[in-house]
Structures are given as C-alpha cells and as structure tokens.
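Entry 12.
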Amino acid sequence: MPATALAAAAPPVTTSSAASSVSTVGLLSSVPAPAIAARAWVAIDVTSDQVLAEDRADDRVEPASLTKVMTAYLVFNALKEKRLSLGQSVAVSHKAWRTGGSRMFIEPRKPVTVEELIRGMITQSGNDATVALAEAVAGSEDAFVALMNQEAARLGLKNTHFTNSTGLPDPQHVTTVRDLALLAKRLIQDHPDFYGYYKEREFTYNKITQPNRNRLLWVDPSVDGMKTGHTEAAGYCLIASAMRGDRRVLTVLVGAASENARTQESLKLLNWGFQNFDTVRVYEANQAVVEPKVWKGNASKAKLGSRSAIWVTVPRGQAGNVKSTVERTDPLVAPLQAGQQVGTLKLTLNDKPVREVPLTVLEPVDVAGIFGRAFDAVRLWFN
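Predicted 3D structure (tokens):
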C-alpha cells in the first residue's frame, strides 16, 4: 500500500520520562513474517526507518560483493564533492587489471571513464572496475579501505570491518545484514542522483555485454536495486529495494542456496512488507509537535519538531491507534539554538513502542533582557 498521510489529526501528545525499547513492528502484525531460506536477513521500511522483521541480523557474515555498496557510497561522495567527475578518464593499473573474480574487462592501456567504471562495478559487479575506482578516489586500494572503515564508523556500522574494496574473501572482512541495510538506506537517501545506476539491466564495455545479476529487476517492476553477491563461504546474497507509491522497502539477505533462491526469498519478504503494513505521516516537516515553556528567553515558548516529515509504519489498518509521547528535560532555559535536540518523540501502537524520533528546536530562542531573566529566575526558584 502506498505511504499515506494520517487521515485524522496528528495523535495527541503527552509528556513522559519513562524509558522504553522500540519493538520490531513485524512482531505486532497478525501476519507473521514468512519463513526465509537464508543464513541471515532483515527487512526495513526506508520511509519510516523501521525494522519490519529480521533473523540473525547481528550475526557477523561475509558480505561478498555487497561490499561494493560501500565502495559506491564513497565514489558518490567524491563525485558530490567534485573530487571526481563522471567523464573523468582513469588510467587502469596492473593491480586493477589482474584482480580476480567477476570482471568488467578493463585494460591497462585503454582509458576508461569514471561513469563506465561505476556501471561496470554495479551492473557487471566487476572487481577490476571496483579496484580502479578505489585507486581513483584514494590513490591505492589500501588507502581506500582505510576510508571505507572510517565511513563505516561514521555511519554507525558497528559490526563491520573491511579489508578490500571488492568483497573478495578474507577472514577479517565482515559485516552484518543490519549494517548492510543501514548502509544501503544511506546510499539511497544521500545519493539519489546516482542511485539510478542500480536499476540498469545490462551494460556493454569492451564489446562484452553482461546482464545485471539482480533477477528481481525483470521479475518485479517496482524493484530498482540494489546489489548481488556470491562466494562459496557467503552463499548467494542480495540487497533488494523496491518503491511502491511513496513507500520504499529494502531487504538484505545472505547465505541463500542459489541465485533463484535469493531472488524468490527476497521477493517474498518485499511482498510481505508492502502487503501487511501501512506507512503513515504523523507530522509534517518543521511542524511543531509541542510548544513547551521557555525560561529566561525572549519568547515564552519553543517550537519543537523535526526538519523532516515524521513517518511511522504499523500493521495494516492500525494507523488510528498510534499515540505520541514526548520526553524532554525540563526546564528549558534560553538560549536555545535552531536544530538543538531537547527531547524525543516516542510513537506507540496499543502501548507498544514502535518508533523514536529526536525533537529539535525549530526556531531559535534568544536570552531575554535583564529584567525578564531576573523575573524568571525568581519563578524558577519557587517552581
């Protein structure tokens, strides 16, 4: 079902200081997640940033060519920051040319553009293209791997460690499906201008045409990515992403038994996620969720909300049962800066927590004059 705005007004807000943990929303559904034949998997709603269901999502696994999502993320960063350009010619090193596994078939004395290498890395899963891009960004693959691990830490990939840019087997090259889901989500959100490469069904280079290994691109028109992987140790792996209406669901699956199995099991998860849940907007971007009292300020109240629209995913037909609770540290004392986090919005369904969103100051509140500050100081004392 497409993401929709909540038909009624935003849920009533109460204030609380009680701690709670967010539930995996699939556990609240009357339709359980399907049995999935894979070593580990996770399904998330990208629109609301909620986990729909998971199995062994924090087990460390070999990512195989799913690694290339991080390589692409860093290449897209470099393009966005003008450190690379799509038409830029890249000299192919002997190391890139000799890299084993799946290949784009670049050659040392034949210049290739950054865009061609991106398409070769994503559509053809070329390890040679991947190493060439790593060298173009950082000078060497070793230096690029250091950037990969720095970026993993910045993005909060807590159980990920990279030793190469391609996903070739290494005992120290590990991640989790939860980390991969977070990485894939960030690539989609941070680099929408480049995400379109993931839906290309084939790419021809050096007179060699290779199809995208993501069979879902032919099976389901809503699927527009994202990346396959396979090694003997990792099994068959797939990050799949689909957009239906305004809503995006993403799945990560590793350790399937075959290409067909990873395709069918991923599609099973995507369909379950779309068919059994609604994703609804409960607050608009920059909408004041609450307006609490401010002490010693030139305004009596502060507007607290989120710069982005706030969405929540719930089992189908349950949107009307969503309630909001705000936790904040009182008293709020000026000055307050725009963007300063001063609370948390907690969304619950039938008293079960389903999502938490930081609440920030939407408009700054400066310090009041000396008499206003003195008056509030006295009131605070007695309060």
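Annotation: Residues 259-275 form the longest helix (17 residues). The CA atoms of residues 267 and 371 lie 65 Å apart.
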